[in-house]
Amino acid sequence: LASLMNLMEKKLLEVKLGELPSWILMRDFTPSGIAGAFQRGYYRYYNKYVNVKKGSIAGLSMVLAAYVFLNYCRSYKELKHERLRKYH
Amino acid sequence: MNENLFTSFITPMMLGLPLVTLIILFPSLLFPSSNRLINNRLISLQQWALQLMSKQMMSIHNTKGQTWTLMLMSLILFIGSTNLLGLLPHSFTPTTQLSMNLGMAIPLWAGAVITGFRNKTKASLAHFLPQGTPTPLIPMLVIIETISLFIQPMALAVRLTANITAGHLLIHLIGGATLALTNISPTTALITFIILILLTILEFAVAMIQAYVFTLLVSLYLHDNT
C-alpha cells in the first residue's frame, strides 16, 4: 500500500495522530532493532555534544546529571521515608 | 537510622532484574574510542591521562612485564571511574562490594604468581627467604613469607572495599548530622558543613588514590615474578 510506504519513512513528529498505532506496531522490535535504536541514540548525542571541535563540560555533565536522576528514581522507595513530614 | 545508613550499599535490583550490571557497565559510556589522530577534547584528555599513567607505571617492567600494560591500564581506569562516579548523589558504587573486589584481586594476583612460578621457578621460590637471614630463623621466616604471600589478594580486595565503604559511610553520617543540627544550632551546623566539604575533597582524592594503589600493587607483584 502506498500509505504503508509513506508511514515507514516518517519520523515520529510527522506521523498523524490517527496513524500512530499502526506506526508503533510497524517499528522493529527485534533485539537487533532495539540495539540499533540505542546505537542511533548514542551517536546522535555523541556527535552533537561531545565529538565537536570545542566540546565543553556540558557534554559530560548532561550524562552525569541523567545518571544522578536515574539513580534517584531507582532509590525513591527508600528516600520517600526521609522526607520532612509529620506522618510518613 | 540503622536501616537507612546501609540501604545505599545493597545491590540494586529492579523487579528482580539485575540493575547492577548496567551500573557496572556505565563507566564504559564515558570513555569513547576513536580511530583518528586528532580527537575531540574528551578523548584527547583521556589519552593524555592514559599516557601519563602508563609511562609512570610500566617503565619499571621488562618486555615480558609490559605485555600486561593493557590489563593494568584498563584496571586503573575502571576502578578510578567507578569510585569517582560513586561520589555523585544517590549513586551505587560497585567497588563497595567485597565480592567484586575479590573477583578483581584474586585472578590478577594469581596470574602474576603463577607466571612467576612457571617461568622463573627458582627466583619465585627464593622470594620466600629474604637475603641475609640468620640460619636458625629460616623455618619460621619461610612460614611467615608464605602467609604474607597468600594474604596479598585478600589485602588488595579488603583495602579497596574498606576504604571506599568507610568514606561513603562518613559522608552519609556527617551529612545527616549537618541536616539535623541546622534547627538546633546553626553555627555547629556550619562547622559540620565545612567538615563535610573537606571530607568530600578527601573522598575525591581517595577514589583516585585507591585505584592507583590497587594497580601499583598488582604491577609490583608482576615485577617480582617476571
Give the amount of beta strand of chain A, in percent.
under 5%
N-to-C series of helices and strands of chain B: HEEHHHHHHH
Number of domains of chain A: 1
Distance between the termini of chain A: 58 Å
- Helical element count of chain A? 5
How far apart the termini of chain B lie comes to 50 Å
Largest sheet of chain B: 2 strands, antiparallel
Membrane topology (chain B): Multi-pass membrane protein
Protein name (chain B): ATP synthase subunit a
Keywords (chain B): ATP synthesis, CF(0), Hydrogen ion transport, Ion transport, Membrane, Mitochondrion, Mitochondrion inner membrane, Transmembrane, Transmembrane helix, Transport
GO molecular function, one term (chain B): proton-transporting ATP synthase activity, rotational mechanism
Walk me through this protein's architecture.
The complex is a heterodimer of chains A (88) and B (226). By secondary structure, chain A is mainly alpha-helical. Chain A has one domain. Chain A contains 5 helices and no strands. The longest helix of chain A is centred in the middle third of the chain and has 20 residues. Chain A is flat and about 60 Å long. The model of chain A has no long low-confidence stretch (mean pLDDT 84). By secondary structure, chain B is mainly α. Chain B has one domain. In chain B, helix 5 runs parallel beside helix 8. Chain B is globular. The termini of chain B are far apart. The relative contact order of chain B is 0.14. Classes of the chains: A mainly alpha (88), B mainly alpha (226). Chain A: Belongs to the ATPase F chain family. Chain A: It comes from Capra hircus. Chain A: This is ATP synthase F(0) complex subunit f, mitochondrial. Chain A: GO terms for molecular function: proton-transporting ATP synthase activity, rotational mechanism. Chain A: It is a single-pass membrane protein. Chain B: It is a multi-pass membrane protein.
